[in-house]
Automatic annotation (TrEMBL):
Listed InterPro entries: Mopterin_synth/thiamin_S_b, RnfH, RnfH_sf
Record protein name field: UPF0125 protein J2W88_003160
Pfam families with a match to the protein in the record: Ub-RnfH
Entry similarity comment: Belongs to the UPF0125 (RnfH) family.
Transmembrane segments: none
Amino acid sequence: MAEKVAGAPATLAITVVACLAPREVREWVLDLPVGATVADALRTSCGVEAGDAPSVGIWGRAASLDAVLQPLDRVEIYRPLKVDPKVARRERFARQGARTTGLFARRRPGGKSGY
C-alpha cells in the first residue's frame, strides 16, 4: 500500500460511471482510501464483484480490476456492443447511397465531385 505523506489526503475522490441502457447514465462519487483499486471502486459503488468482471476503463482507457486509482480518477463501466460499429456504418452507407453522405452531401453547384 502507499505510505502516508504529511499533508496528503487519506482518501481519494473517485467517480464511477455506468451506462445502464442507451441514454441512461448512473454516476457515483466515492471517497476511497489511498491505494484502492478499480475492483474496490466497483464493489463500493454498485456491488459488482470480481467474478462479474465487466469491461472497465479509467478516463476512456481500458484498465484491469487491480489497477490502483489516483485522485480524481473516473472509472467507467462499459456495456458490450450489440452491433459492430464498422458493420453498422457500412450498412448505413449502403442504405443511404454514396451521393447523399459524407463529402458528397454538400456539393457546391457546378463543383467537382467530392468538393
